[in-house]
Design a protein that fits this description.
Uridine Diphospho-n-acetylenolpyruvylglucosamine Reductase, domain 2; 5-stranded antiparallel beta sheet; Uridine Diphospho-n-acetylenolpyruvylglucosamine Reductase, domain 1; binds flavin-adenine dinucleotide; alpha+beta; 3 domains; Uridine Diphospho-n-acetylenolpyruvylglucosamine Reductase, domain 3; 9 helices; about 25% strand; 4-stranded mixed beta sheet; single chain
Length: about 350
Amino acid sequence: MKKDFLKKIKKDVYLRDYAAFKIGGKTRYFLKVKNKEELRKTIEWTNKKKMPFFILGGGSNLLVSDQGFNGLVIKIEFKNFKNRNKEIFTEAGAELNALIKITEKRGLAGLEWAAGIPGVVGGAIRGNAAAFGHSISEMVKEVEVLNSDNLEWQTIKRKNLKFGYKNSVFKEKKNLIIVSAIFEFKKGNKKQIKQKIKENLRYRKQNHPLKFPSAGCIFKNQKLKIKNQKFLKKFPELEKFKQKDEIPAAYLIEQCGLKGVQIGQVKISDKHSNFIINLNKNSRGKQQYIQQRYLEKENKNQGKKTAKAKDVLRLIKLIKRKVKHKFNIELEEEIEYLGKI
Ligand SMILES: Cc1cc2nc3c(=O)[nH]c(=O)nc-3n(C[C@H](O)[C@H](O)[C@H](O)COP(=O)(O)OP(=O)(O)OC[C@H]3O[C@@H](n4cnc5c(N)ncnc54)[C@H](O)[C@@H]3O)c2cc1C
């Protein structure tokens, strides 16, 4: 490893280029780390400088402030895999969909439901990524972390990862940075695995607004209260969700008449009410700095504005207020915020 890799730190990098939402300002400093030792050295440096840092995975669950971030964004770029029978060792920066591809090739069952979830393994473990009644926690055997307080490596077994609905120990202990994980699978039928993946991808294409940048579902579904008989008497239309013991946030938002509501260049999706979409399609894909500046100028000339985090926030506040008023339910964000919001 080159000693001077810290010289690769870039200044004033637009975070919207690294966020699926394609929204957000600049970070003061930005560094891609290629292996765990580089990560350790980087954290040693931020500790010494007392500089705030943020670990970036695939950027698919983030709303970045229009003011950006006054610190160092560390993009985890190590992404190796190792196969061991029914287990797969994966580094934190590996795409979740690349892991799924390997399981498909090797006939390992258990992760088909996750096909199409963007982002990397580290991000998926932290948020306990979930869909179709399954979550990543079902396959995780253990996770290796770097403790940013004492710069020590640690292996945490599944039972100590405190997995819950869209939750894990990593949301509570922000000093633990995921560097790798071991996943355990069951032997399965290759054809069936492939078919399941295909069906799930088709479902996403049909039901999610994938043509626009977004951060996926903005709010968590509602786990509580559905068993509460008084609550069901007041809202008998929610009886249909009793079996799953979960009310989709999208349903609540739709019932408040908010589908399609737009502020500036962001909108509550007509296709799926728990998605807020960025209507400025030009901001899709990885833009280089110059291209981005050019687009902004172009948009300005045409009287258009780029999508703003502050408008997403206004929609989030509106949704929360309306759902609270109608159902007395406090929706909780699934997305994470980066920078001063
Ligand atoms: C179109 C679309 C569909 C989606 N569908 C789903 C879905 O079905 N189910 C679902 O659960 N989610 C879904 N999401 C949300 C998102 O893809 C997942 O939450 C994903 O797992 C986030 O991973 P990421 O690497 O992008 O994390 P990021 O957005 O980069 O980061 C999320 C958080 O994890 C932290 N983090 C990242 N890497 C590490 C690490 N190595 N160590 C410690 N902390 C880390 C970050 O600091 C941040 O706090 C969807 C998003 C989109 C855009």
